[in-house]
Amino acid sequence: MAAGVDIDQVLDTARLRAIHWRTLVVCTIAMSIDGYDLYIVGWILPALSDSFHVSRVALTSVLLTQQVAMLVSAVFVAPLADRSGRRKLLIACLMGTALFSACSAFSANPLQFTIWRVLTGLCAAAVVPNLVTLSSEIAPRRFRGRFSTITVCGAQGGTLIGAAMQAFILPRYGWEGALLLGAGLSAVIVPVVLLWLPESPRFMVRRNSADPRLPRLLEQLDPTLDPRTPLYTATACQVPPGGRVSVLLGEGRRPSTILLWCAFVASFLFIGQWSSWSTTVFKDVLHMDWKSVGATTSLYSSLGVVGTFLIGFAIDRFGFRAVLPKTYALAFIGAIGVGVVAPASSMFIFLGMMGLFQISSQAGLAALSPTLYPPTHKATAVGWAYGAGRIGAIIAPASGSALIRLHGGPLETFAGLALPLLFASVLLFFLLTRKA
Question: Three-state secondary structure along 184-243?
């Protein structure tokens, strides 16, 4: 082993400094903007259908095609960061998102709009796993769970931007203005990333330990070290003959990887069903007025943000094994509680419990995925896990529709919607018990 300082040891034991806070803030803001760009179509769908003079259902293909593009991006685009660097790919994808979102605003028909949204999805979906990977890699070990979950929590900021857009942009400037807002935000964050977001030190040392940028980065991470100190990474590894697939499915990782991917499928299946059909359930099954529906959405999302912040502390303190299976199970219990007491006002207690634990569980799952693999393939591992999750998101609208057509009562409906949360809990129990 070469003489010098192990960059992994430096990063794992470092005190929190300005570079850590700067990375966390930029990653979280970028996640908010990217979340807005990824999910904007659902928010502007009624305006789109009116403008193109087609039914709402006729635009379902746009949502489905974009989800397929996001799957392709997670599997094939996001892993490119393991070769080119996290920062470089993030900048390229943010620029692509800005360009294609702007082009979407000038679509003359649904076909043009679909093409531009596919290109947007290919860029935007690769941003998410790489933001999670970068924030996880630069964080000290004792803060890694918090950094990852706070970064993922940024996606809820995208929801807030979407709500503000619906209130102030959509009525005045239409769906075109909403898309241009997303394009503008993606463009604005690019120079911020260029100026303030560092490349992953682990990636830099692994690729070229003599990189001239490393001395200044080392000084920011630990001012007590001589910036001229040679750096190495003890966890570097050569790519096996089978390439990245062998890293994920070889070396005894196959069962863990399959369990992780299945947990992502289950988690995204719930998210897809809930985002597609929860409003319909509240209106048609529980017979709530629009004001009450709005209150449920606000309560669910707000407590989800609280839970996302808290789960990072819990993971850093107690570990993934003690936390994640339980939070998914508690989210499922919350859903059962809603079904038992609805439409009584006490349902809001269980709904809040559901939001608190479900959204935080998803953030915890995202934080878990990069910890299971070597640094050489973290972006690939996270991207492929998200790609597996997109399979659940693709089938979710149809599975939720089948559940709604059964015309069950509140208990049957909420239990059916939330069943994937129970599956995720069981899968993670076996995964983390096996890993332990």
Answer: HHHHHHHHHHHHHCCCCHHHHHHHCCCCCCHHHHHHHHCCCCCCCCCEECCCCCCCCCCC
